[in-house]
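Q: Hi! First time doing this. I have a protein sequence and I read that you can turn it into a structure. Is that right? Here it is:
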Amino acid sequence: MVRLVKRENLGYLTECVTAFFKFQQHFTHIVPVNFPDVEPCVYAMWHNHQCCVYGLPNKSKTNVLVSRSKDGEVVANSIERAFGFKTLRGSTRRQGSIEATMQMIEALKNGENGAIMVDGPKGPVHIAKDGAIKIAKLAGVPIVPVVWYSNNFNLIKFKSWDKLEVPFLDVRLINLYGEPIYIPKDGDEQSDEKYRLILEKSLLDLLERAPEEYKKVYWHGLWRRKK
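A: Yes, that's right. Below is the predicted 3D structure, encoded as structure tokens:
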């Protein structure tokens, strides 16, 4: 996608992606599993699991951290228009990162939620960075790990560093949530690193559990009950 995004076609691409998201909402059937129902919180997900946002509750009070790249601009504008999310524009540069971090902390303190792809924006894949830890610590809110899973074959698969997959047409999937992680406000760098590893392990464990949890949802017919 990155190679296709140029300044002159940002508007066109945003319209296309927004239309796709709105269309796909009607065919993306999500069952939440182990949803902790704690707010405000920071939803933490892998970059290639960013389609978890389809199933997040209270979208209008959830702030999604999106990079300042051109493709990030398309994604940010599209999820605002299609889903009603709020977006904050971060970056790997210090100034942009600090600005987005402070905006996220303020939103969390005001009772809103956050959503962060913890191994973004450029990887390494499935290695959690410490941004979510710092934000949750300063805001005094828990981190809620979440992954999505589907065994449907009709997924769009991108040849990107994270191997992103996007639901396409009729897809059944689950959002599998981990237990909330509370970061000590008085913790030092060693403590923060401990909780970064806890978050990373929680997300990896959820990936391993997801196929079995998907089977349980399937055999209990929970998608049929939601329709």
